[in-house]
Amino acid sequence: MNAPLGRLADSLTLPQPYLLFLGDTTEAGYAKTAFGLADWAADRCVGEWSAPGCTVSTGLPRLSPADARAAGARSLVIGVANQGGVIGDTWVAVLVDAMEAGLDIVSGLHTRLTSVPALVEAARRTGRRLIDVRTPPPTIPIGNGRKRSGKRLLTVGTDCALGKKYTALALHRAFRERGIDADFRATGQTGIMIAGGGVPMDAVVSDFEAGAAEMLSPDAPDDHWDLIEGQGSIFNPAYAAVSLGLLHGSQPDVFVVCHDPTRKVILGMENFALPSIEEVIDLTVRLGSRTNPAIRCGGVSLNTSSFDADGAEALMAAERDRLGLPVADPIRGGPGFAALVDAILA
Amino acid sequence: MNAPLGRLADSLTLPQPYLLFLGDTTEAGYAKTAFGLADWAADRCVGEWSAPGCTVSTGLPRLSPADARAAGARSLVIGVANQGGVIGDTWVAVLVDAMEAGLDIVSGLHTRLTSVPALVEAARRTGRRLIDVRTPPPTIPIGNGRKRSGKRLLTVGTDCALGKKYTALALHRAFRERGIDADFRATGQTGIMIAGGGVPMDAVVSDFEAGAAEMLSPDAPDDHWDLIEGQGSIFNPAYAAVSLGLLHGSQPDVFVVCHDPTRKVILGMENFALPSIEEVIDLTVRLGSRTNPAIRCGGVSLNTSSFDADGAEALMAAERDRLGLPVADPIRGGPGFAALVDAILA
Hints:
2 copies of one chain form a homodimer. By secondary structure, chain A is of the alpha/beta class. The first copy, chain A, is built from 11 helices and 13 strands. Chain A folds into 2 domains: 18-132, 3-Layer(aba) Sandwich (Rossmann fold); 151-345, P-loop containing nucleotide triphosphate hydrolases (Rossmann fold, 3-Layer(aba) Sandwich). Chain A has a 6-stranded parallel beta sheet with strand order 7-8-6-9-12-13, sandwiched between helices. In chain A, helix 4 links the parallel strand 4 and strand 5 (130-132). The longest helix of chain A is centred in the C-terminal third of the chain and has 15 residues, at 309-323. Chain A is globular and about 60 Å long. Chains A, B: It holds the Pfam family DUF1611_N.
């Protein structure tokens, strides 16, 4: 059954496996989504393809849309963003070709696929779907606050863009490696592509924000964990509404605070100091206890990418002593990260 | 310049004066919007009109759409809601007639005006607008947290639907009576119709919630007050996202807590106790200080409609003693309400 053009399906699931599309990109920085998919969803990516002029590669096999379809691919994912988030002219012919080969098109760009007439015409003609992951599903209920079964973890942050998605993904991988039944629940466009579904929480109408979060992590077996990708920060003057609706609706048992020790002010807002980790813990417990009185902080995920190995370990040790909590950098892993996982499961 | 069909104009303003439309209503309870407009915007209502079978009246003169247009009316406002919020079959002919007489149509019903083909056709033919006040304006910026000039008050609450709009309107009237330059800033559909403009905050996409609140109360002279209608409650598990975005973006200098002493649980959520007034004050100061460190509680607006005069006065006196703050019922007015206004202005 096909979803309406341009919408995630009611089931919140994307057609997988994927063929990754790299556009005509010449700088790896613009292909972050493709690299994220190759890192976290390689088992669901059959290969990569590009438009003329492209010079970057994820290392996956190069497959034409027809070959990818023959290898089982069900959609082509636009894995690059150029400046302005537009759909490049040289891309359109490739995307039409992909639809003719039987692939749906998945995009997280600002420009909607459905705003490009040639793509809409090709989708109608071929019966393929144009799926914008920035568009929320059509049927989101108002939140009801009912306690759901199963366990939930939410990554929160001192600000935007400092590792909440990465932390939830790394915890998901670690949980699975320990044999724990767990799902990564995605709330942003890249996460949704990696998970193959989710809800773009920042695009949901405010009245439905908590309801969307409730929908994202439904009732589950008692020993099942949902590892939920956080958004924004309850201290961010622009985005706190998203963060609070997600916190209330997620009703997490455990949260992990994500922080970048080099960041001193809110991204793009020089007059707003970054909150301390302690402030984030305190306010998250206070607000989160409204829908889960047992909420607790499992530890801290520190982005130490600006430090060398010794510096990072010294910083994390100092933070452990200061906060009395596990502190780890999931990118570095190691015993510190294992201790964080232990504390979450304790 | 006409706004697109079905949207508030960029300027957030509705065409006034109004002709109130009462549909075929036979119970006053369904005509709350019309009565609210007659109470709070009588100077901008030229009269009322109805469909066959209507038995209620606001007391305004009965005028046909043509006569209303001749008297200066610029729009017909649907001032009633029937069960389901639909547009009654008998109404359509009246609404078409009103457009032919030169009136735009304004509605806050769940059913969009633009979903009724006969109305869309008549709007195209006559060049009139179909304005759904539940639809936010098209151009809302992301919040920036910048401190704006002028003074702001926000009504907040222990829950939904217990007097936040009424309190802001009563304060607006009191401020104007004292010669203070003030605007009522509407955030819900009835308030928007009364004010002649505003932003339906619960319909704004979450990422833009704080930005919408910033847009609603722009820079103003230093001695000007914006009296902002609150929405929901930061303690409401379904709607707190709306409330927090509105609080951050409004950056109020003063807030007034609205409370109904007979309500013990959140409306429609029996497992959620109503927060205390003190809890609302404490958390509002904590969250609101993010965008206005000088935020303070001006007092409490108590809905005492279930009490007789003596009982209400005794309750308010006890609450004043307990909280050490002005406590008043704006519907009862009197010296208690004057003291609340004094405290806000102090």
